[in-house]
Design a protein that fits this description.
alpha/beta, Rossmann fold, 3 domains, nine-stranded mixed β-sheet, seven-stranded mixed β-sheet, 17 helices, globular
Length: 600
Amino acid sequence: MEENKIIVLDFGAQYAHLIARRVRQLHVFSEILEPDAPTEKLRKAKGIILSGGPSSVYEKDAPPFNPEIFSLGIPILGLCYGHQLMAQQTGGKVEQGNVREYGLAEIEVSKENKMFEGLEEKETVWMSHGDKVGGLGKGFEVIASTPDCKNAAVANFSRNFFGFQFHPEVTHTPNGLKMLENFVKGVCGCKQDWTTKNYIAQKCGEIKKQVGKKNVFLLASGGVDSTVALALLHKALGSEKIYALHVDTGFMRKDESENVERELEKLGFGNFHVVNAGEDFFEGVKGELEPESKRKIIGEKFIEIQNRELRKLELDPEEWLLGQGTIYPDTIETAGTKHAAKIKTHHNRVDSIVELIEQGLVVEPLDQLYKDEVRELGEELGLPHEMVWRHPFPGPGLAIRCLCSDGKENSLEEIEAKAGKIAKEFDLGVKILPIKSVGVQGDARTYAHPCVLVGGESDWGVLEKASTKITNEIREINRVLKLVAPPQIESVELLAADLNRGRIELLREADAIAMEKIAEHDLMKEIWQFPTVLLPLRVNGDGESIVLRPVESMEAMTARFYPMKEAVLKEISGDVLAIEGIGSVLFDITHKPPATIEWE
């Protein structure tokens, strides 16, 4: 029997869950299933959306799927990988693109149709792909193109099959929700009968059932996610069954732990204390240079500290579950679902926690939500507005914003020459930095060099175009920066440096300046997150380097760099350069993808 719902098939969970979220925003029920779900489950839907994903359809280990998807007589929308799979399965051809597209692109609609009803002939969309549909399947025709992607949107009107190479589900496709609405309501005929009013009651019931007679020991960072999780657990279980611990790792922001303790006490969360474990964490990461290893060490250290505090409190581990404020992007980026590529290991997804999850010993009431949904939930639970709208801050803290190196450099002349040719088109020069950062390209993890744009008087629009073209065309680069100070780069020296208190203090001061300045200029909401990063690079023989990385986003799956006003940027960089030990300031002008929001 057909139900009023959309089924999303998960070829890449970071996209599948975001698509499901967008469908819920249209007040239509959505269900996520594996691509090889049985036919009887699939035929109950009014429509099927095939998500994007990190695989290529021609790979031997491409995700298995139920081929009957395409013979059920149900409308289908394929997005990115899903678009390519539909083309392959209907007689089309998929090939590796000559030009990769990451970031903003403009499609031109070539034919009136239901999918673009109510939209303009030209629409801005968000691309993230290396492969493309080179030949159309039987009965398909082109309905929109970009200069680099002829088959950006295709349709088989007789079967109600549609394919988009771009991602309408991300916020950086401005009218993407309207496109999804046109499919969900216009093509599939779904009714608006889903609401979020009963979400808290439903979740409280699930928490009570999972916890039973046990109690919950929550690691509370004081950030949005853990605070909302704490409030939801309190509502579900009552204060007597919850104990919260805040761990000062030594990698916190300036005065962070003191502020967290004060704020949680104000909210009436009485079973709570702070432990200063900086020595433990610094000792754990001593000499460690590799980003993934740092993340894993820090994640395991959290569990070690938690167990130690349980013993001190004489709490029986058999009577307590671990509570975490994990949200869905944490799971996705750690490859926590079947078809997700690992981008980085979140501290709440290290091996020991995964083992506890498999044993049913972890309570994560927010693990299916995105940041915007968590904020809505926090407001509904009555948390203070300023707390709910705090900037996200990673569990490992400043440790993953303080890059390390053994000081050994490789030749970058070939990469620099390729980047230089592109930069010259924009009257700019380049410098490739002898360090690497984490990125996400083609939905998979990359570890590549940043490129600094130097010279010229280019505005943000020109810099954005140069950044996008460089990262699209040069695989060895996943991040592009603007040189703020000094005015020119004469030399760059890579320093041997690990995580130590001196470097963290440098970064802490720079971070505090950045956050204070955007608060002064009332930019805390306009800027979604503002990592400040320390690089072990000595420019022109002076100090280490600071990177400013403000971004605009809603759900962290995609993000745009924030085009800061020059006056504000000048204030921040001037104060940062006044810190003894800092010799240069750079500004990250890369979107996500191809860069991640954090550098590690």
